[in-house]
Design goal:
The chain has about 300 residues and is of the alpha+beta class. About 30% of the residues lie in helices and about 25% in strands. The longest helix has 14 residues.
C-alpha cells in the first residue's frame, strides 16, 4: 500500500548532491532561488520490477532542461542515471515513482542568479496508479481548463520546468472540486493541447490523432505509445486539433509516466467509449514497461 505520510516526514533515503541522506534531512533554505523564481527542472519516472523505464531519456531531458533554464547540472547524464538507480535500491523499492529535480540554491536572491549553486536531488517512493483503478477502467471524466498552455515566445514551453506547472495545479484543483479527474487544456491559440500532467490522444475510424507538441512537453510515454501504435499497423497523425472536433472522435486516452495509458469517457459535453484500440495500447504499454512480469506470466 502506498505511503500516505507527508512527503517531508518519511523514512528512507534521498540522493542529495552526490550522496544518500536520511529522508527528513533532505532540506533547502527558505530563500532558495527555485522557491521564489521557479528556477528548477524535474522529471517523473516509474520503476517496474526495480528497473526505471526509459531512464536515460529522462535524465537527458532533465540535463537539457536545465540548460534551457541557463544552468548546468554538475553531474553527467550517466551519473544522474546512477543516482536514480541508487535511490530506488536504497529504499528497497521495485515498483515505484522516481523524482529527480535540479535547482538553483540560496547564494543569491533576485532575478539575476548566476552565482547560485546548482543542486540535484532524487527521491523515490511507492506510488500506484495516478488515477484510481476503478475510475481508470471506466474512463476518466475531464472538464475544460480556463488557463492555456503558453506561447513558446513567452516561456520555455517545451521544458519540464517547475514554473510551467503552476497553472496545471490551479486547473487540477478546479477540476477536482467540480468532481472531475482532470482538465483538458487548450494552447494560447485555442487549439487542443494536453491535460494538466498528461498528453492526449483521440481515435476516429481506427486512426489515432494527437496534438502537435509545439508548445508543451512531448512526453516520453507519448513517444512510446506512438511507437507501439505504429507497430500494430495503426496510423498516428500528429496535427492541430480544434475544440469543435472533439465530438467527432470515438475514443480518447491520456499518456504520461504517472497516468501511463488511461482512457477518457468524458470531456465536458463530449462523450467517449473506451474501446479495443485503447485496451490494446494499455496492454502493449504494460508489456513494455513490465517485461519481467509478462515473462513470468
Amino acid at each position: 500500500m502506498a505511503d500516505t505520510a507527508p512527503y517531508h516526514d518519511r523514512d528512507g533515503s534521498i540522493w542529495f548532491d552526490g550522496k544518500l541522506v536520511p529522508w527528513r534531512e533532505a532540506n533547502v533554505h527558505v530563500l532558495t532561488h527555485a522557491l521564489h523564481y521557479a528556477s528548477a527542472v524535474f522529471e517523473g519516472e516509474r520503476a517496474y520490477g526495480g528497473e526505471i523505464f526509459e531512464l536515460t531519456k529522462h535524465s537527458q531531458r532533465l540535463y537539457d532542461g536545465a540548460k534551457t533554464l541557463d544552468f548546468t547540472i554538475p553531474y553527467s547524464v550517466a551519473e544522474i542515471d546512477q543516482a536514480c538507480r541508487d535511490t530506488v535500491k536504497a529504499n528497497n523499492l521495485t515498483d515505484c515513482y522516481v523524482r529527480p529535480i535540479a535547482w538553483r540554491g540560496s547564494e543569491q536572491m533576485g532575478v539575476s542568479a548566476q552565482a547560485t549553486k546548482i543542486h540535484l536531488a532524487v527521491a523515490a517512493w511507492d506510488w500506484g496508479s495516478y488515477f484510481p483503478m476503478e475510475e481508470r477502467l471506466k474512463g476518466l471524466r475531464l472538464t475544460l481548463a480556463k488557463y492555456r498552455r503558453p506561447d513558446p515566445a513567452t516561456a520555455p514551453a517545451k521544458t519540464k520546468a517547475a514554473g510551467l506547472y503552476m497553472i496545471c495545479t490551479l486547473e487540477k484543483h478546479r477540476a477536482e472540486r467540480a468532481g472531475y479527474a482532470d482538465a483538458l487544456m487548450y494552447d494560447w491559440r485555442g487549439h487542443v493541447a494536453e491535460c494538466t500532467g498528461a498528453n492526449v490522444f483521440f481515435i476516429k475510424d481506427d486512426v489515432l490523432h494527437t496534438p502537435v507538441a509545439d508548445c508543451f512537453l512531448a512526453g516520453i510515454t507519448r513517444e512510446t505509445v506512438i511507437g507501439l501504435a505504429k507497430k500494430r499497423g495503426l496510423q498516428v497523425i500528429e496535427r492541430t486539433i480544434m475544440p469543435d472536433e472533439l465530438s467527432t472522435f470515438s475514443e480518447c486516452f491520456l499518456t504520461g509516466t504517472a497516468a501511463e495509458v488511461t482512457p477518457v469517457a468524458e470531456i465536458g459535453e463530449h462523450k467517449f467509449k473506451p474501446g479495443k484500440i485503447s485496451e490494446t495500447l494499455i496492454n502493449d504499454y504494460m508489456a513494455v514497461v513490465q517485461p519481467r512480469k509478462q515473462a513470468a506470466e
